[in-house]
Amino acid sequence: MAHLDLQSSPHLIHKGPLARRYYARYGKRALDLILALTLLPILAPLIALLWGVVRLDGGLGLFSHTRIGQHGRRFACWKLRTMVPDAEARLRHYLDTDPHAAAEWAATQKLTQDPRVTRLGRLLRRTSLDELPQIWNVLRGDMSLVGPRPVTAPELDRYGPQAPLYLSLKPGVTGLWQVMGRANGCYAERLQLDQTYALRLGLWQDLSLISRTALVLVRPTGR
């Protein structure tokens, strides 16, 4: 992967070739709207169907979590609910009683065996179907179809001097993190993938990542 100068990397989308700058300012948003509106008639019924199935256990069908977007703007990132209603209490108990799980959580903010996730939720995560409602975030302009993985405020603190690079881009529904790093990536890998994406920012990269995401979903590995 390409390595970038940390002092200049936050400004990559504002400098460099003219084509990159125009795509970052205008073309990327146009691509998001065209593809999102094209997919909406297909995705809306599917989201409604999955929402109804998730609701069968008595909990909410949708879940939103506050994420940090471009320029530090906070937004509600939408997903189909994949966890039990008392997820936070169950997580605290699990981490307090299992030191190996606590270490894994501290390193990646993910768990190989997550006691909060329902049986249906595991299927939704493995296929990334839980992220379909984020098409609403794309239409609103909170997210892009392709970009860095959306993070929480505590996660952004881990980025250190590279945080401005993340904040210069809209987080993506998919990205290099999904087609290359996906669930197994540590934070160092995520940061490198964000840098690589910014360096290569352009229409063909975005179209390539969208098509490669479809291939990843055929052999799901997410969690």
pLDDT < 50 stretches: 1-8
- Which structural class is indicated by helix and strand composition? mainly alpha
Q: Order of strands in the sheet with the most strands? A: 1-2
| Spatial shape | globular
Q: How many distinct helices? A: 10
Describe this structure in words.
53% of the residues lie in helices and 9% in strands. It has 10 helices and 4 strands, in the order H-E-E-H-H-H-H-E-H-H-E-H-H-H. The chain has helices at residues 18-54, 87-97, 99-108, 119-127, 134-140, 153-157, 163-167, 176-181, 187-199, 203-218; strands at 62-68, 74-80, 144-146, 172-174. A two-stranded antiparallel sheet has the order 1-2. The protein has a two-stranded parallel ribbon with strand order 3-4. Strand 1 and strand 2 form a beta hairpin. The model is unreliable at 1-8 (pLDDT under 50).
